[in-house]
Amino acid sequence: MGTILKYLFYALIILAIYFLGVGFYQGTIHKESTISDVANHITSNTKETLKEGYETTKDAVQGGIEELKDEGQEAEEEVQGGFKE
Length: 85
Known about the structure:
mainly alpha
């Protein structure tokens, strides 16, 4: 469990550094930016990225569940059809 938390922490640090670089590149973070401005920029972008990742994962899982249900129904119909013959 500790290893998972360690890698999660590393991933969050990498995300923060990435958004810091993006902020400098886009010009939203500059010489006159305060620490609060930078933190707000990083926080909002991180939340947005995590939310998009959550939604994408949720959609993929729902799609997989629907496919499994369909396959299960098809298999059940095949089994039922085999018993009727």
